[in-house]
Write a structure and sequence with these properties.
The chain contains 10 helices and 12 strands. The chain is of the alpha/beta class.
Length: about 280
């Protein structure tokens, strides 16, 4: 937690937290963040600050995906964390676990968010930052929308009106309706602390940039843009690609991201050859 962006002290945030649980928002199984490598240590750190494990909720940000399984929890977090901490999967259709926020989103919509997140005494989000085929970059505000919102908001975020916009594309942030929408929703109920994770080609942690959500995320996006977004100087006849292997190609929906990201690099009438396991089907 050293050198956090625009946050004086993470220790102070923990000690001065409001009444309620500490909620740690984690990504869904289709994101390859190696939580098992650092989450146990982070949880132990919280306990050294006087936080009982029963005061902590690990909230899986599913969006509208199915709930994760017990075995997936073990795969993601390790057996010790799975057996000793409360793990909750967001359910975008369960009205009893949603709370309506004050204010409207960028599109003028009412917003319902996960109640565990809203009512937390300390909200911590985590996310993988990489180019994203519709939101510009993943991570940051995406941990809240579409990950913790109601079904209607998920549908709007992934709907034709947003996706047909020319700026709803990889690495585009300005005037991107997807980015405008989920940024506005995140501002209605921001986390107290955000952990932005960047991985290398082997899905190992390359760097972590933490702190206030928007400032730390902007710094992480800048880092990723410089590190892995080389300019394509000449379009190709053929591109060979994938979405990065398991778990990023577990479903066809996730697998498509690898295809879409290649589109700007291909000549008209060119071809894309893409590899993906799609072990869970569509």
């Amino acid at each position: 937690m050293k050198n956090a962006v625009e946050v004086d002290s993470f220790d102070d945030l923990v000690m001065q937290r409001k009444a309620g649980k500490i909620v740690i928002v984690v990504s869904y199984i289709t994101r390859p963040i190696p939580y098992f490598e650092f989450l146990p240590e982070f949880l132990l750190y919280l306990e050294t600050k006087g936080v009982d494990k029963y005061e902590i909720i690990i909230l899986v940000a599913t969006g509208m995906h199915r709930s994760s399984t017990y075995q997936e929890h073990i795969q993601m977090f390790g057996k010790s964390v799975t057996e000793n901490y409360q793990i909750v999967d967001h359910d975008c259709e369960n009205e009893n676990e949603l709370s309506e926020s004050d204010g409207l989103s960028w599109s003028g919509s009412k917003v319902k968010l996960n109640k565990y997140y809203v009512e937390a005494g300390l909200r911590i989000t985590t996310g993988l930052v990489e180019p994203h085929f519709m939101a510009g970059f993943s991570g940051g505000r995406k941990a809240i929308c579409p990950s913790l919102v109601a079904l209607n908001a998920v549908r709007k975020f992934h709907g034709y009106t947003f996706l047909s916009h020319p700026n709803a594309s990889s690495t585009f942030m300005r005037d991107n309706p997807c980015n405008d929408e989920n940024t506005s929703i995140a501002k209605l109920c921001p986390p107290d602390f955000s952990i932005n994770i960047v991985l290398d080609n082997h899905k190992k942690v390359n760097t972590v940039i933490s702190g206030e959500l928007f400032a730390s995320y902007a710094k992480a996006v800048k880092y990723v843009k410089q590190a892995c977004c080389p300019q394509v100087k000449q379009k190709a006849d053929v591109a060979i690609t994938s979405s990065g292997g398991y778990p990023l190609d577990a479903t066809f929906y996730q697998f498509v991201k690898g295809i879409v990201n290649c589109l700007p690099t291909i000549k008209t009438g060119g071809e894309i050859i893409a590899f993906g396991a799609c072990i869970e089907g569509i």
